[in-house]
Every structure is written in C-alpha cells, then in structure tokens.
Specification:
The structure is a homodimer of 227-residue chains. Chain A has ten helices and no strands. Chain A is mainly alpha-helical and 227 residues long. Chain A has two domains: 55 residues, Homeodomain-like (Arc Repressor Mutant, subunit A); 137 residues, Tetracycline Repressor, domain 2 (Orthogonal Bundle). In chain A, α5 packs antiparallel against α10 and α8 runs antiparallel to α10. At the A-B interface, α1, α6, α7, α8 and α9 of A face α1, α6, α7, α8 and α9 of B. The structure holds a DNA duplex (18 and 18 nucleotides).
Chain lengths: 227, 227
DNA sequence: GTCTATAGACAGATAGAC
DNA sequence: GTCTATCTGTCTATAGAC
C-alpha cells in the first residue's frame, strides 16, 4: 500500500515513476478486461475462473489481484465499458432527421457494433439472462433515461404523421432483439444460414431484412388506415 | 445395480415393485430437471452447483448421482426436453394456410411458449451464447431440417405473390429474436416498459407490435414495387 | 431408494520474497 | 510491478451404512 515506486525512489523521481507505472497499468488492465470479457461471455461470472483470465491476459494470476480487488470488480468494469459503447448508435435518432433514414442508420450501426464487439455483446446478454445481478442501479437508470428520450422522438414522428402509430418502447425492443441476435446467437444463425461463420455480407442481408420487414411496416400507407 | 426391489422381493413381486420404483423415478427426475433448468438458466452450466440443484429439487445431492451419472447428463436431458417443445409452434406454417394468419399464429404461440417456459428459454439462450458446447449434432441437424422445411413454404408463398420477396432464413431469425427477447431479456424489457414484471397484456402488446411492424412489412403492396 | 461422510481436485484470494 | 507458495473454502463425485 504505502510502498511505491521501488526502493530507489527519491523525492522528484516519483512523478516519472508514476507515469511509467501508469502506462504499464493501462496496458495490463486493458489486457485483463479483454480476456475477461471473452471468458465472461462464454461462461458467465461464476463459470469463469480467475486463473483462466490471467492465462488469457498473459499475466500471473496474482497480478489480477494487484489491479483489481476481486473478480467482481473486473466484471463490473467490463460492463461499464460496454454500456459506454451502447449509446453511440442512438445518436442517429434525432427529431429533425427523416424517420426512416434515421432508423435505418441506427439499425446498421447497431448491427455493426455488435459484430465488432461480439464478446461484449454476448457478455451483456449473459448478464441480463442471468437476471442482471451486477448491473448497477445507475447503469439501469442511464439506459432507461436515454431510451425514454428516444421514445419521445418516435412519438413526435408518429404525431406528425411521418410514421404509422407504434408503441415506441416495443419498437426499440424489436430493434434491439433483431440487431443483437445475429451476434449473440451466432451459432444458431450460422446453422440457419448454412455458413461456418458470419461475414459482413450476412450482416448486410440482416440489415436489409430488418429494414424491409420491421421498418417497412411503419411507413405511412397512402391509404392511412388498413384492413 | 443388481440389487433391486428391496430385501423382501420374491419372484412375481418384481413387476409391482418395478412399477413403484418407476413412479418415484419419474417424479424425482422431473423435480431434478425442473430445478436444474432454473439454475442453468440463471448461472449456466459451470456456474451451477450440483448441491444447488439437489437443494432446489428437495433431494439429497447423492440422489442426483443415482438418477443421472453426471451434471452434464442432467444438462443434456434438459436441453433435449426443451428442443422437443420448440417444434410445436411451427406447425402453423403450412403451405395451404394464409401466410399472414399462419405467421401471426406462429408469433403468438412462440411468445406464449416462451412466457410459459421462461427458464427453458433462458437456459437455451445461455447455451447458444456460450457457443452451444452441449447442443448435440443430432439436435442441430433436427433444428436445421425443420427450419429448411419451413423456409420452402415461405419461398412458395413469395413465388405465388402472396408475400413480398424476403430471405426466409433471415425472416425466421427476425421472428425468433423478437419472440424470445421479451422472455430471455425480461429484465431489460421490464425496465423499458417501466413494469416490475411482464403481464400477459404486455405480451399482447408485443404480439401486436411484431405483427404490425415485421409482418406488415411483408404484405404485398397494391403497387408491387417500392421507392 | 435414501442419506452421511468424505475423498480428491481445484477455486478465490493473500503473504511476502524479489 | 512480478511471482511463488499457500491458506481456506468449496466443488463434483463416490463409498457404504441404512
């Protein structure tokens, strides 16, 4: 605790030593989080051994406990990092945008994010399926608030007659489910599409399907009511 | 192994005793599978302790190993039981049915099945996210074959002009994702809908949203091409 | 068919030399 | 900042009395 910067540290050398330690710390923490995310995605919290995280991160196990106090602390850090990434795709949904251009851009960015951050996506899915035991109240409030903000925009679009009436909360649920399924349940998707793994062009097909089914159903008809 | 039917068993009593044991066996195996499904759903395979299964099933732990040889055997039995249940909802999809009545009936039965078998649904989701390590080749082939059978029907409907063109495999993926999300990710859904838990009427809203977005987008337009 | 006791392996976490 | 050795507890699975 008190022992820092090595035995030969004197006043004046501490800043330089601290910077060096900081670099190592950042590199190692990143390696730990990366390794942990992959394992937590595959096996969940209880199923992931601290030893496995250490091996995959290329560090001795004891070092995990130097950078993080508990396995839970590693898990929570990974969740926080993921949630920070979720928000970005929602930026397309702005009141002044064209509803269908905005929603299509959102769908495409969401699919892309999941594809490029597959382990994080799966880890989060695992966390929710397990009953969200580690998702903090603050994280849940944040996700709730940003969703609410976007539902108001959908409601505005509906009120303006630019979209057919739809429950915006359920619409978001449908969009989340479809944009995450391909990555989270990749094994099923691969079996269904008869491919060993998913390529970008499969994600392009996914985007097209979502746009032509989910979103197309929301375009206002020329005859504004329906059979 | 050889010791059966208790000490006082004589020739002629064995059949009766065997029936009695059979009843106990069925009851206990069911209790074990039920308890295991709930726990596997929450914590995955590695995260679930045999002791917990036993406690929840109301049996001493050693009895688990009397009915099943390993924890994996329990897990596989639960998976098999679940897959047997998946097929039912697909029966609505018949070539001679109306496409939209058939698909709506499928969606509603699928949502209903997930709602009433939440633990099984979540356990299966957990298994796939984890990379499907225990899903047997035979199970995957079965799921693939039944899906293929139904995609042919969708293709026929499209060819007949009763539905807009769509990749049937992707359509099934979209329908699976939306009908399972509400149950598998119930925590997120509850936060989004601002409810402590999901009621049947929330599932009714879900069905309506899926029908009015996904399926509505597939109805052939009066003008058969599109902007 | 039930249950106690325990073997044997391995987990998370820590102490302290370097 | 790294790493060996180890503490303490828990796990799956089994042996064997009842």
């Amino acid at each position: 605790m008190a022992k820092k910067a090595g035995p030969r540290a004197k006043a004046g050398e501490q800043a330089g030593a601290a910077r060096g330690e900081e670099r190592i710390r950042q590199r190692n923490e990143k390696a730990i989080l990366r390794a942990a995310t992959t394992l937590f995605a595959k096996k969940g919290f209880d199923g992931t051994r601290a030893t496995e995280i250490a091996e995959r991160a290329g560090l001795p196990k004891a070092n995990l406990y130097y950078y993080f106090n508990t396995k839970e602390e590693i898990y929570r850090a990974a969740i926080r990092h993921l949630i920070a990434g979720w928000d970005k795709a929602l930026r397309h949904i702005r009141a002044d945008a064209d509803p269908f251009e905005a929603l299509e851009a959102y769908v495409r960015e969401k699919l892309d994010y999941a594809r490029k951050n597959a382990d994080e996506s799966r880890m989060f899915a695992n966390e929710i399926i397990s009953g969200a035991p580690f998702l903090s109240r603050a994280d849940r409030k944040h996700m709730h608030d940003i969703t609410l903000e976007k539902t108001l925009i959908i409601e505005q679009w509906v009120a303006e007659g630019r979209m057919r009436p739809v429950n915006p909360r359920h619409l978001f649920i449908v969009l989340w489910s479809t944009t995450q399924f391909y990555t989270n349940f990749e094994k099923i998707t691969c079996d269904t599409l008869e491919k060993p793994r998913l390529s970008p062009s499969d994600y392009e097909d996914a985007a097209r399907t979502i746009v032509e089914t989910v979103l197309r159903g929301l375009r206002p008809g020329k005859a504004s009511s329906d059979p």
